[in-house]
Structure formats: structure tokens, C-alpha cells
# Entry
Amino acid sequence: MARIGVFICHCGENISRTVDVVKAAEAAATFRGVVHSVEYKYMCSSPGQNLIKEAIKEKKLTGVVVAACSPKMHEPTFRRACHEAGLNPYFCEISNVREQCSWVHEDKTVGTAKTIDLIRLMVEKTRKNHELQHIKVPITKKALVIGAGIAGIQAALDIADGGQEVILVEKDPSIGGHMAQLSETVPTLDCSQCILTPKMVDASRHENITLYTWSEVIDVKGYMGNFEVTIRKNPRYVKEDVCTGCGLCYQKCPQKKIQGKFDAGVGLRRAIYVPSPQAVPNVPVIDKDHCTKLLKDRCGVCQKVCPTGAIDYEMKEEIITEKIGAIVVATGYDLIPNNFYGEYGQGKYADVIDGLQFERILSASGPTAGEIKRPSDGKIAESVVFIKCVGSRDPAKGIPYCSKICCMYAGKQAMLYKHKVHHGQAYVFYMDIRAGGKGYEEFIQKGIEEEGTTYIRGRVARIFKKGDKLIVRGMDTLSGQKIELAVDLVVLASAMIPNKGVKELYQKLSISYDTYGWVSESHPKLKPIETSVAGIYLAGACQAPKDIPDAVSQASGAASKVLALLSKDELEKEPLVATIDKNICAGCNMCVQACPYQAIELKPIKDRKGNVLRYASEVNHGLCAGCGVCVAVCPSKAPDLAGITEEQIYAEIVSLG
Amino acid sequence: MSYKLGYYPGCALEASARDYSLSLERVLKEIDVELVQIKNWHCCGASAAHSTNHKLGMALPYNNLALAQQQGLKELFAPCPFCSRMLITTNYELKNKASLPAEMKSATELDYQPDINIINSVEIFKRFWDRIQPKINKDRLKNLKVACYYGCLLVHPPKILNYDDPEQPVFMDEIVKNLGAQPVDWEFKIECCGGGFTVSNEEAVLELSNKILEDAKENGAQAIIAVCQMCQINLDMRQKEIENKYNVNYQMPIIYLPQLIGLAMGIDPKELGLNLHFVSTEKVTLLESEK
# Structure
């Protein structure tokens, strides 16, 4: 005979505001099998949990139903409490009367009636529960970090320092990401390269880190603790182990006028190149779309001049598979394309550039060696307009979110410009100034008060050319005046968007992303580092626009999660998995195709002599995530899901009359 | 074979923009396109109605569209950008605002399914280009540099009109290039001319139109090509006042696109209404007759 206890939570007033909890407790007490029914203000609190524990002991409960918030929130809490009181945790069920009832209803009568129904069906389910034990799975003690910008580098270094092996994969020829492109950083004006390069070198030299640059993750299988990852190493056409990084090849390459990614299109590189002098590894790569040797079999100069014979035009891509226990996604961001705002003429006027392009112009190692020469004619820019929120906070044409870092970098760029062109004038058009962060507001104020940056509150309506000047037409909404400024250079603080191609990668990882393509965190407040898939964590701007300190902190957070996971030898897994009855299975293969986790395989059923009689499906419980797709697709009802059996679902439906 | 095309001339083309309608009708006759007017058509409400009463602003075009549908017209050519924008917007709102069809029906007592295709003053020539091309001689306009002026209404609001690039449009430039003339790269393709303020705030119109004329001239245009009669009238009729006020000299002919097409076809300028302009069009017509 089942002896079930029902515990109804007020959730402060979140539930009790629209549910008569006393009435619900009285109703639940009358349900078949219920021997105990109470309500309490905060069931998740320590006294609340004690109510459950004491009742289990005193009333000899065989099942517990907690009517509270979503099981995503406190199911583990209440199951642990039951376990501590000696009850198998899988006899504890959550009836979600907050998200699915009190929060969506206004009328108390309706809310109460629905709560009673929700408890009734969960009591029926609990009556048919079985004892379940955790599944134990071994863990591969190796981590994968995807993306080697500052976030990926930091995560890899922290994991490696913690004593675990790390594979660091970067799709560009060098690690360093966008931070390597920047001139100086907010708010201390530290040189970006100077603080980043030592970390890049550390990452490449660390005995626990294996670096794959010019490489991409092309396939991911498996689950937390036991992923199998396939990496494609694209051909560099330069042997990494032979090259000494002398640079003769790219000094002699005759293909000189290629707009490179690292200089963001404002500088030119050769067909064989290293992205920057500080590149790690310091090994060139041949751009196969521009190299005449690879395209037309003409030239071959780099091979002739290379003193160590490192050039190999025949090099092929390499496929590497690795067994991995945990993954950190640090795939970074991009800026909206240059032709985004037609009214700003971007793409049409060489002197309307984005923030990353201006960083390259500011950078001492950039194409102008740090002189503020404008791209069209190389003239020193005597006046510059910076426009914030280009694409950001623009639901009509761009994206509705704030790109977060632009206020600070536009302020910084205006300041650095003034440091280099003392007689020049910088203007910043802004909607408002969002300078939250340590030392950030003071930095902006310094720019205004001491460096003479002119801030104009208002939007720019149009940019057009007159003679060799750009006319910036806008509005000063503080004075209510129309403004036209004739300037030499315009820098747009363009909106940040996810990197190209990341959605395909996220689909391979099976992690969720939002409508824009930013990786979704498991919980916006309490699980900001976890993705929707166990064992895969996120770091940096792949989640949302983020500045360097935030990205670095999050990377260290992700690393600590990975280290905690890899510190165990075995992983305890929820036993809520599917099992297929071989006696019923007809071997139709539908579940094998439907399973999103590749957890089902057709296996032969043999007689005593070893002859194959037929085939039947079998579930790998290590891989199974308990999603229930196989149960739904099977035409002969062979699979069943532990903890949510078909019998239980039927009992729930029947209980509603 | 004659092509019958639904036609909504709009009020301006019957009055201040006679030169526009003359040239349109003449050029379309040349390519054997017959314009079928909506019987009993009336004002579309333009900017006046929709800025005072949204329902009225929708009901006037709705009524016109319903009349056109009664007449069996499947497509409607509306040369005035005010009209074409209001007609397209009405179609759009009928499809996207659930309560509107019933409201409109009760206001006008007419049924209308929002599927009449509206053709604007640039699209029409792209549409019939295969009929136009054999009739033109590209040499006639060979040395003519023109600034294609789209104005604000032809491409805005982009979400509803969904026509060309709303900030850097190119469709008219392509047509002009195919006629043999040279479209100049200039900055004020979609800049506002001041529009209807020509009556209530003349100063604003003079200032805005002056900037347009100035930029066209600086970029080497010998003429401005317009498709909006409001733009044309502000730049043409007000040009003398602008020249006096800002002490400049433009003498810039403001030519309608169908007039330019007619010239490329070798049609007599008078038949195209080129003698009805305030600023002399000789710069363009003489260039043609010199050949």
C-alpha cells in the first residue's frame, strides 16, 4: 500500500497569491494513497525540508509529492532531502504549481482548482514509481577548449595549471583573437598586445596544452565525461616542425595587396603571411585563395627562398579524433558587416570605418604604425566623429540588444586619438553613456574633462561626402539643434554579433543558442557558465557582448567547473533512461534514426548455435539522455523510460477523469 | 500587341504635373501599353489624410483599390510616389492588421481582396524594358550626365515598400545607364526636397532643395531626373528663388524619367511636355537635336 505525503509550498507569495494552499492541502489529503498533506511558506528552506524528512520517518512514507516551483529549480533539493531520510530519491516527484499555474493565472479559484489537479496526477504517478539507482560512467580526463581568444586562452591555462590535459582549437592561423588586434585597453590604457602576448606564449608552451591552430571542430559525439571530438587541421602549406619563423617567405611573396582579417581590411598582407609579428605559433600560412602557385601553379618563390625547406604545396588537411571529458566553448564575436547602414555610406566611403579597423590604425604594430592616417588618402585625420550604437539598440533595422563595450571603447578611442593628434578634435555621438564597471565612469569623465572629447547626445541621420570631407548630419537632442560636421574620419561603434559559422558548430555540440546566435546559458542567474548540455561550458563573448575582464573571469569560472568534473573518476548519472524490450522490438530501426544522442543501436539476437535470428534495438545507458523520443516513435511500444513510464503517464491522464 | 495596364493617375498629374502625365502617356503609347484608368477614381489622401486620421488615410486608397477590383484590374500603375506608397501601405495593412478589412468594408461599403499589384514610377520601365529597348538610340543621350533623384517616398518605409536599397537605391541609375546617359555618383538621391512645405514653409523648401541642386551640380550633373512631381516642382519652380536667395547659378533642368526615355526614343520634346518647365530644358533637348 502506497503511503504518500503531499507538501505544498507558498513560495513566499508566488504561489499562495493565486492558489488557496490550505484548500489544496485539504483536497490532497483525500486522494487515494495520501496519508499526509501540509503546506508551508518556504518548502525549499531548511525547516521546510525538515518537514519532509520528519514526515517520511514518522508516517513511514513510501512516496513524496512536492507542489512547488519548476523541477528544474528544486527537484535535486527535495530528492536529496528524501534520500537523507532514507527514501529512494526517485520516489520524490515535483508538481510544478508555480511556473505552470500560479504565475500564469490571475484568478484564485482557477489557480486553486488547477493546483489540486496537478497534485492529483502527480500522486497517481508517484503511486507507480519504482526504486532507481544512479548509473556510473567513467570520465575521460581531458578537456577541449574551442576558440583561442582571451577567454579560450585563459580557460585552457587554468585547466592546464590544475593538472589536466587540454586541447585548444583555434580556426585562425594564430591564437589571440580580437584582443590581439586592439591597441590599448580600458581603463588603464595598458597595451593590449603587451598583456596578452605572455599568455599566448604560456598557452603554446604549457606541457598540458596541445594547440591546434588553423583547425576546426567538425564533429562531436558522446556525452559529459565521454565526448568524442573530430578536429580538422587545415593545411598551412608550411611544416610547423621545420619552420623557424624567419619571415623570408612573406618578405619575398609577390602577392602584396590582400586585405587581411587581422588588420580588418585597413592594412594589406601577402599571400603567405603571419597575421601579426606576435603570432603564436610564429609559423606562416599560405592563403590558398590568393597564392598563384596553388591557384595556377606559377611562382613558388616562398619555397625557393625558405632556408629550411618548410614549404609544402602538397600538404593535405589532417583529421584528428580525440576523447574528451569536458568542453569549453569560447567562440567569440564579430561585428555587423560594413554595409549595414546605407545612410552611413559604409562600404562606399573608405573613411567610414568600424571600431576594430580604428584599433588597427591606433595600434603601433598596425598598418599605419600607430599614426592616425585615414584609409582613403593617408592624410592625418584632423577631426574624427565616433558614432555609438550603430546597429545596437535598434529593433527596427539592427539588433535590439546593447553591445555593452562600445561606450567604453569609443571613449577610449577618442582619448587615444587626442594623444596622437594633439590639435585634432574628437566628437562622440551617443544615446546615453553606459559606463558601469570599475574605474569606467571616471575614465569617461576624464575623456570629457581633460582630453577635450566633445560628446553630442543624438543620432546621426546621414553621412555623405563633400570634397575630401565627410559631412556628418545629425541632431543634438540636448539643444534641439540640427548639426552638420565636416570631418576627416568617421568611426562606427558597430553592433557585436556572434561569429560566422558558429550556429553549425553549436548544432554539432547540441547546445542551445538564442535567436541571434549567442550561446544560451543554463540559467541566466545561477548557471551563467553552463550550457544546455551537461559537460559543455561557455566563456567570453560567445554568450553575449562582453569586455575583457568579464570574459577572463568567466573563463576562469568555466575552467573551475571543468576541473571539478575531471577531478572525479566516475560520473553519477541520473537513471532516467530508456530501455527497449527485446521481446517486443521488431527491429524496424525507427528509434535508431530518431535518437538525437546516437544512443540506440540495432543488435543481433542469436540462437544457441550463434545463428542470427533477428535484430533488436538496444540503448546505451551512458549516452541516453532520457528525452523519450524513442518511446514516442516506436510503433510497437517496445521502449519505456524509467521514472516516466507509459503506465505512469496513463495513470496521470486517467486521474484527471 | 497592346498591353492593357490599370492606371491610377492621381490628382497632381491632372494639374501641376501635366508634363509628367503627357510624357508618360506618350512613351507608353510608343511601346503599345494602353493605360486603363479606374472609373470614378478619387484622391488617395496622400500625406494630408493619413497624418490627420489614420482610418481616413486607409479608407481613401481602399475605396480606389476596391473600384479597380470591381473593374477587373489585377495591377495598377501609380506614377505619383505619394499615391503608390499609400496604395501599397493599404494592401500591407489589410494583410497584416486583422481588424482592418472589416473596418474598411463598413466605411466604404465595398469589398476588396488586397491582391492588386501596385507598380511605381521606376518599376514600370523595368517591367517593359524589352518593349522600350528596341525603340531607343543610345547615342542620343551619350554625353548627358544626370543625377537620378529618387526622393524620400519611393523607397520609404522600406519594411512595407521593400523596393530597392532604401538608403542607396540604384534601380533608376540602371535604367538611365541603359538609355545611354551617364548617371553621376552623388550623395542626395533620397534627400528630402521639402515636399508639401512648399506652401506652408517656403524657407525650409528653399534650403533643402538648394542642397540637392548644389550637390548635383558639384558632382557634374547637367540635369536631375525625377519621378515625383512634388520633387520636380520644388526643384524646378523654386529654382529661380533659390538662385536669388543663395546667390548661385544652377540652370539645372529637372527632367521626368519618362521625358528622358522619350528623348532617347527620338520623340519631339514638345510632345513630352518639355516646353512646360520653369527652368529651360534646352540643355537636354538641344543636346539631343544636335545629333
Notes: The interface with chain B takes residues 341-343, 345, 348, 396, 462, 464-466 of chain A (CB under 8 Å). The first helix of chain A runs from residue 21 to 29. The two ends of chain A are 22 Å apart (CA to CA).
